[in-house]
Sequence to fold (193 residues):
Amino acid sequence: LYNGNSQTAEQLIQAQANYQQIAELSALAGTARLQAGNAQTIANPKQEPAITLHNAAVALFNGEGEKAITLYQEVSSNKTASELEKQQAFLQLGRIYTELEHIDLAELNLGKAIATNSQTEYTARAYAERATLHTLFNQFDSAQQDFTQAQQQQTNSALTLTGQGVLALKQGQLQQALNYLLQAGVIEPKLAR
Fold:
């Protein structure tokens, strides 16, 4: 998958999933298809949280925002979902609500993503997303606090550096903004496009 051969990755992962009947591997195979531009939902008769997360991502990819929200909410309230799966669901809900400019719902879900599990990549993303939300609505002190937390959780994150660049730009700190955005571009060259 990391070498850009998503079709082979999908076949290998799906073969392993079929052999062991593990929902997480089936969801991972679906993610490989999604990254290859072949978004397909996976049958989920047992309501496995990992598969529901995948199906929510497919719905979002296909522009079905309300369906994605419903599926992410299912995971967030599923008693069998792991803390990490719930954290992913809250993070995605927060991101969706940020895009829809539903500030209270975005803040609520990003806060739950932060509170759910303290030391994961999703925690750093949730801090960065919440900081971006604060930046969008000119709450600069809160944004800076969350960007600091995101940096502590995951150093050299392109998402965090890009957000810090936008924050600095909105505050009129042009040189600092340029520095952050250049650092983000080095870490994730696709951002430079």
